[in-house]
């Protein structure tokens, strides 16, 4: 698997989410039909910071050898983030009234990233390179 493309795509997705969460928490709360509160806004902005931090980590690591024991903390962190996110989103699919297509889209995106990082996490990059020859 081409980890450069995977890390770049996940960095782009998380970077977009991070910017939106960091700079438009009030608008997100309003669109979700939730009342504005300083605490909710703060939590969304902190989540945006987390997404931006993960995005820049992936972007700066996209040239590294990844898989097996190589860059294992990076692969494990991404896998856990996307797997837990996918499970949480899949759990909510039937109960979301507003903007269900956003939840469906995010669930699919998270599941694809979770599966991809799972493959990277549990395969050895050198064995994959030998198969390609």
Features of this protein?
133 residues; mainly alpha; 78% helix; 0% strand
Helix content: over 70%
Beta-strand content:
under 5%
Distance between the termini: 14 Å
Order of helices and strands: HHHHHH
SS class: mainly alpha
Instruction: List the quaternary state of the chains.
Output: single chain
Number of strands: 0
Whole-number mean pLDDT: 92
Which regions are unreliable across 5 or more consecutive residues at pLDDT < 50?
none
Shape annotation: globular
What is the gist of this entry?
The chain is built from six helices and no strands. It has helices at residues 3-23, 25-31, 38-61, 72-92, 100-122, 125-132.
